[in-house]
Amino acid sequence: MFSGWPELGVLELLVGVDDHGSLGAASRIAGIAQPNASRAIKKLEAQVGTPLLQRKPTGSTLTPEGTVIAHWSRKVLDDARQLLNVAAGMREKRAAELTVGASMTVAEHLMPAWLGQFRRTAPDVTIHLQVRNSRQVCDDVTAGHCEVGFVESPTVPRALHSVAVARDRLVVVVDPHHPWTRRRRPLSIAELARTPLVVREPGSGTRTTLDLALHEYDRAAPLLELGSGAAIRTSVLGGVGPAVLSTLAVSAQVESGELKVIDVEDVHLDRTLRAVWRPPRQLEGPAGDLVRLIRRAPARGSCR
Questions:
Q1: Which residues fall within 8 angstroms of residue 213, CB to CB, at 6 or more apart?
Q2: Cis, bond preceding 280 (omega within 30 deg of 0)
Q3: pLDDT tens digits along 139-189
Q4: Distance (Å, whole) CA 105 – CA 127
Q5: In terms of Cα–Cα distance, which of 152, 157, 96 is closest to 127?
């Protein structure tokens, strides 16, 4: 009765004997010492229960049974090569696709340049960008919906690894006609907390950073909650009310004078933008390449 599975290497030896006329020639081409090749064939003969080689002083050749086994060995080896080719194709397909999650501010103001540079270094990688708020990005990474995420929240879930990729700062902005623009002294943090603001939705990194900065103070209810920094910026430009936004989102409008930055005493709204991913700690493949490229990129400036 047949016992155990033969190794593919010995099947290749058997096919080599059929192709090259002797075990010695087959072992030389396979890079195997002939005594080791002979032992491997004897083990295969024990497994199939019949002699496969005619051993002569001039060399070993196939028996009729060996010729039959060599014929079927070719089919097994062809199927094994196809299996490995399919597996390699699947691996290359995974490696050639990268799903990235990014918070709103990062996606709008930083990701285009980052992905443009990455595209020049890795043109064969197809990138899928999912834009969510920071909490949702972390949820997507945790669930395996994307390989790496970029968030602006002060903290990340303990189950995820993270690394700083950039720095950012939040500022209070108003339209040029707002009464705060005529102040001679900075706004106090208590005044900021008591003022109804145009804010992002809960779960966004900007909202979380602001809430942590003001958590010790009585807070006014939001004037308006909106789902993106761009929508908030438009509202402030329209005179709806003040807001706290990333310098990335308002630098052009502050430089042109369309928005004014209001100084606030004793409030620190600097923040770190992070890449997040699931274990293991070492991020490999295109996702790791992207994060390393971003960390080498020059930092963006802030506005006043």
A1: 189, 267, 268, 269
A2: yes
A3: 999 999 999 999 999 999 999 999 999 999 999 999 999 999 999 999 999
A4: 19
A5: 96
